Amino acid sequence: MPKGIKEVLFSEEEIQARVHELGAEIAKEYEGCFPIFIGVLKGSFMFMADIVRSVGVDCEVDFMGISSYNNGTTTTGAVRITKDLSRDIEGRHVIIVEDILDSGITLAYLKKYLLNRDPASVKIVTLLDKPERRKSDIVADYVGFVCPNEFVVGYGLDYAEKYRNLPYVGLLKPEVYS
Ligand code: IMP
Ligand code: MG
User: Fold this and answer.
1) Cα–Cα distances in Å, from 157 out to 27, 162, 169?
2) Which atom of ligand 1 lies closest to the CA of 40?
3) Where are the domains of the chain?
4) 13-149 has which fold?
5) Cβ(146)–Cβ(132) under 8 Å?
6) Marked catalytic residue, from 50, 99, 102, 129
7) CA terminus-to-terminus distance, the chain
8) Three-state secondary-structure class, residue 144
9) From CA 53, how far away is CA 11, in angstroms rounded?
């Protein structure tokens, strides 16, 4: 286990199995719709790669960069777009792909922003959901795992840009960020 990781919360095998279940669910709903998956950089990159392969329907992928100003491990509330879509989404079925739904501030902002562009629909798939921490009124349509109210890293998620490459989601030792 890398230095700084206290324990594995969701193993590589658990994640892969759950991603396949989610993929099958999404495929049923979007077959023939030619959806656009929009990954929220950078945290969703690994989940995005796995989910689009497991959904398997004809689709497009795009990415957005969103920076929510934060002080280490929590969002402060101000959101800013750092990379916009590369194509128009008018009339399209959009699926936002996110690593973790925490306060919900980022996704509430992003969903509103995308709805302003007149897509046919916008749904959210998130690998992890921390419902206890919600500050915005937002729910994900597809959730991989409900996550305890602790700071997690791996499978795309970082602490100070580290640990994104771990194939599992783990708990960080408190001394790393305190
Ligand atoms: P929200 O706007 O508070 O929902 O923040 C969502 C973003 O905060 C996620 O996309 C992550 O980038 C980051 N984040 C929230 N909780 C965690 C965590 O436990 N580990 C790593 N990043 C997190
Ligand atoms: Mg993120």
Assistant:
1) 25, 8, 8
2) 10
3) 13-149
4) Rossmann fold (3.40.50)
5) no
6) 102
7) 20
8) strand
9) 19
